[in-house]
C-alpha cells in the first residue's frame, strides 16, 4: 500500500488533506467537545435515558408537544417482528395513520418498582382509538455501556406479561447503539427475552431527532438537540465498561454521514496508507495492529467483488456465492456428499484458515466473536453432527480465502473452487 507513495507524494497528499473543506468542517465538529463529553457523561446509560425521557415527554420545555412520542411509536412499528405486527395489527395501523388521540402520557427514567428493580425508561400511554381507550406500557431497556446482565429482559417480561390484555398492552423495547446495517441483519433481538423489539440510536436520530430539527423549534431546543447529536457521533475508541467494548460511534447525523463519505472518497489512498503504517508498526500495541489489519483486510475484500463456484468430481454443487459464504458452502458440500465423520469433524474444528475456528459451538463464542458477528449466532446451527450444533465462520476476505482453498482441495480430492 505505502509503496505507491514517495515521500514527496505523501507530503503533497497530507497538504491536500489539510486544505480539504470537508476535513476542515469535520475537524471543527470532532475536535470540539459536546456538552455531555465535557461533563464526562456521553456514554452513561442513565444520561441517555434521562435525555430520551425528556425528549419523548409531551409537556417538556422543548415545546415539540406530541411530535416526539408519535415518532417513537413509528420506530417501534418499523422494527417490530411480523409476529408483533400481526398481534397488534389494529394498534399499529393507527400508529401509521395517527388516527388516535393521546389522553395521557407518563414517562419516567430510572423507574423503580418495589421489590423488583429499576427500569431504564418506563412509559404509560392512554390512547383513544375509534372511541375506545387503549392503555399501553412501554418497557425500555437501554444498553450503552454493557450487555444485559442478571437476565433483566426475561425478568421484566415475567413481571408485566400477566397483566396484559387487549386493552392493556405492554411493548418491550431493547435500545442499543449498534449500526442500522447490523440491526436489520438480526433475526431476533440480542437480549435474552425474544419478546423485545430491538431498536438502535441511529433510528432515534433518523426518525425522531432530525425530523424534530426540521420543526418550528426555538433556538434553545435546536441547540440541545444538536449537542445531543454531537455526543452520539463522537467516537469512543478506548473506553470499555464491564469488559464490554463500546460501539465506536452511537449514531450519525445525515450531514456528518455525507461529509464523512465525501471525505473518504477524496482521501482514501492516504487514509489506507496511514492504516497500513499503523498495522505494520511494531511500536503499536498488538491489539491495535491486529484490529487495523482486520479493517484493512475487510476494505480490500470489499473492493474484490468476485463470486465463487464450488464443484465436486466435476459437478457444480453451488454457484455464484460470496467470499463470506465459502466456509458454509464447503461444509454444506461435505455434509451433502456424506464426507463428514469423526475424523473430519476434528479436522474442521481445528481449522483456522480465516484466523477464527471454522466450526464452533454457540456456547464457545467469545464476546468479540458475538459483537463482530464472526458467526451467525442468531440463526440456527448450520451443521448438526451427532446431535451437536455447529456454526461456520464468516471471516473470509482476499487475505485468507486462498488458505481454505489450498487446504481443502488437498484434503478432499474432487473438491474444486472456481473464481467468477
Notes on the protein architecture:
The longest helix has 26 residues. The strands form 4 sheets. Strands 1-2-3-4-5 form a 5-stranded mixed sheet, with helices on both faces. Helix 2 packs across helix 12, helix 5 packs antiparallel against helix 10 and helix 12 packs across helix 13. The radius of gyration is 25 Å and the shape is globular. It is built from 17 helices and 13 strands. With 420 residues, it is α+β, with helices and mostly antiparallel strands.
Question: In brief, what are we looking at here?
Answer:
This protein is of the alpha+beta class and 420 residues long. It contains 17 helices and 13 strands.
Please tell me what the overall shape is.
Answer: globular
Structural class: alpha+beta
* Overall helicity: 40-55%
Number of helices: 17
N-to-C span: 25 Å
Beta-strand percentage range: 15-25%
Helix-strand pattern, N to C?
HHHHHHHEEEHEHEHHEEHHEEHHEHEEHE
Gyration radius, rounded: 25 Å
Amino acid at each position: 500500500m505505502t509503496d505507491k507513495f514517495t515521500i514527496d507524494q505523501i507530503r503533497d497528499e497530507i497538504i491536500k488533506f489539510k486544505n480539504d473543506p470537508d476535513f476542515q468542517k469535520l475537524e471543527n465538529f470532532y475536535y470540539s467537545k459536546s456538552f455531555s463529553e465535557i461533563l464526562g457523561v456521553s456514554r452513561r446509560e442513565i444520561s441517555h435515558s434521562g435525555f430520551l425521557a425528556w425528549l419523548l415527554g409531551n409537556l417538556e420545555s422543548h415545546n415539540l408537544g406530541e411530535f416526539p412520542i408519535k415518532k417513537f411509536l413509528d420506530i417501534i412499528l418499523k422494527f417490530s417482528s411480523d409476529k408483533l405486527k400481526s398481534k397488534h395489527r389494529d394498534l399499529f395501523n393507527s400508529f401509521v395513520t395517527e388516527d388516535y388521540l393521546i389522553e395521557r402520557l407518563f414517562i419516567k427514567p430510572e423507574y423503580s418498582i418495589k421489590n423488583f428493580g429499576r427500569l431504564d425508561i418506563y412509559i404509560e400511554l392512554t390512547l383513544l382509538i375509534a372511541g375506545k381507550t387503549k392503555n399501553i406500557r412501554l418497557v425500555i431497556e437501554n444498553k450503552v455501556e454493557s450487555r444485559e446482565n442478571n437476565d433483566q429482559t426475561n425478568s421484566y417480561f415475567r413481571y408485566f406479561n400477566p397483566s396484559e390484555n387487549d386493552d392493556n398492552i405492554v411493548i418491550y423495547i431493547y435500545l442499543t447503539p449498534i449500526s442500522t446495517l447490523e440491526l436489520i441483519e438480526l433475526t431476533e433481538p440480542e437480549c435474552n427475552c425474544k419478546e423485545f423489539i430491538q431498536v438502535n440510536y441511529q433510528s432515534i436520530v433518523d426518525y425522531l431527532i432530525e425530523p424534530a430539527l426540521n420543526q418550528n423549534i426555538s433556538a434553545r431546543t435546536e441547540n440541545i438537540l444538536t449537542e445531543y447529536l454531537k455526543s452520539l457521533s463522537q467516537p469512543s475508541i478506548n473506553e470499555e465498561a464491564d469488559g464490554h467494548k463500546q460501539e465506536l460511534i452511537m449514531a450519525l447525523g445525515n450531514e456528518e454521514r455525507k461529509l464523512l463519505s465525501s471525505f473518504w472518497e477524496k482521501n482514501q489512498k492516504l487514509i489506507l496508507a496511514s492504516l497500513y503504517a499503523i498495522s505494520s508498526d511494531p511500536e503499536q500495541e498488538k491489539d491495535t495492529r491486529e484490529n487495523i489489519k482486520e479493517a484493512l483486510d475487510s476494505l480490500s475484500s470489499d473492493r474484490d467483488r468476485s463470486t465463487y463456484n464450488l464443484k465436486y468430481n466435476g459437478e457444480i454443487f453451488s454457484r455464484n456465492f460470496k467470499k463470506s459464504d465459502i466456509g458454509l458452502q464447503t461444509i454444506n458440500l461435505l455434509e451433502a456428499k456424506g464426507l463428514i465423520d469423526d475424523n473430519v469433524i476434528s479436522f474442521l474444528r481445528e481449522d483456522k484458515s480465516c484466523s477464527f475456528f471454522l466450526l464452533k459451538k454457540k456456547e464457545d463464542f467469545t464476546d468479540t466473536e458475538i459483537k463482530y458477528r464472526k458467526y451467525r449466532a442468531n440463526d440456527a446451527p448450520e451443521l448438526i453432527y451427532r446431535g451437536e450444533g455447529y456454526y461456520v465462520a464468516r471471516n473470509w476476505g482476499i487475505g485468507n480465502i486462498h488458505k481454505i482453498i489450498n487446504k481443502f482441495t488437498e484434503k478432499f480430492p474432487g473438491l474444486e473452487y472456481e473464481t467468477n
